[in-house]
Amino acid sequence: MEQIRYSVRRFAEVLGLSPHELAEAEERGAVKSSIAPAQKTLYSLQDLAAARHALGRTPPRRPMRKQLFLNFKGGTGKTSVSSSYAFRLAEMGHRVLMIDLDSQGHASKCLGITGEEAERTLFDAIIKKTPLEHVIVRTSMPGLDLVPSNLSMSTIDLSLMPLAAREFRLRNVLKEVESNYDYAVLDAPPSFGLLNLNALMAAHDLIVPVLADFLSFHGLKLLFETVQSLEEDLEHVLDQIFIVINAYNATYKIAKEAREALEKHYSEFLLKQVIRQCTKFAQASSEGIPIFAFDPESKGAQDIQAVLDEIRERIGEPVRLKAVESGR
User: What is the C-alpha to C-alpha distance for residues 74 and 283, in angstroms, rounded to an integer?
Assistant: First the structure.
């Protein structure tokens, strides 16, 4: 991710400026490019962070909001969505902690970190009581930190089994760093075990990516039954639950019918915005680059931004600053 570069137009847009306002800021010396002179019309991630600080374009700090991406059904594109969601929050100036709960480490890879090379994972914090700040690694995006994952996480459910207060381990660990971040974005594996129970007990919001097919209904039913049991047995009530349709193709009859069924049975939780089918998601993930850095003009990037805005509006957060072009 360290090779991500912004064009003048995109740099201004991310900062919520018009190109003219950006040019004026450069003339004042408030914005500078660290790229070689031959490429001086490009900007780095570090330039973005420096410009936000110099221009006062940093959003207000808030108590850490923990948002869990989970679906018991696999193959819904959950990790690509959650990692791009976390990247975009950081790009907007928020302090974000991405937590990879899956032993495959795909969320780590999507943010440019090879999980196999990580010295520590969440296993060390929860089971070995290593301070979480010693587990967290910095990504190339300033303001976006990561708790990486690798195969050492595969035995965490067994290790949690005999522990006291085992359902609250993650919630308690996150208290160590809650003043350092505005958001914690948790990417969970498509299964139910003690680790995902911990994640549910720690979360404020549950975000459930689904495909527009009827196989998704079985996974949703099981997930909602689990959430209901948490409310009854452990007295934990999630603030919000959001269902988002991913990889949606309106030309497929089955997709339209599945969406109508979701609107009928889960209208209270279903987001109006869908994420359209976009092959660039897979390309971006395979290269360890979030969709916003890979192709910010793609359908996938536009739709995740719209999903993020809709979620933030529902939880009472202000939406992003938008660039005001000259003459508009």
Answer: 19
Residue 46's nearest CA partner among 56, 31, 61, 59 is 31
Domain boundaries, the chain: 8-55, 65-314
- Cβ-Cβ contacts under 8 Å for 272 (sequence gap 6 or more): 310
In CATH, the number for domain 65-314 is 3.40.50.300
The answer to whether residues 207 and 308 touch, using CB atoms and an 8 Å cutoff, is: no
pLDDT tens track, the chain, 328 positions? 778 899 999 999 999 999 999 999 999 988 988 886 655 578 999 999 999 999 999 999 999 999 999 999 888 999 999 999 999 999 999 999 999 999 999 999 999 898 778 899 999 999 999 999 999 999 999 999 999 999 999 999 999 999 999 999 999 999 999 999 999 999 999 988 999 999 999 999 999 999 998 887 777 988 999 999 988 888 889 999 999 999 999 999 999 999 999 999 999 999 999 999 998 887 887 787 889 988 999 999 999 999 999 999 999 876 654 443 333 3
Edge to edge, what strands does the sheet with 240-246 contain? 137-138, 144-147, 96-100, 183-187, 65-69, 205-211, 240-246
Angle (CA) 9 12 13, round 5°:
85
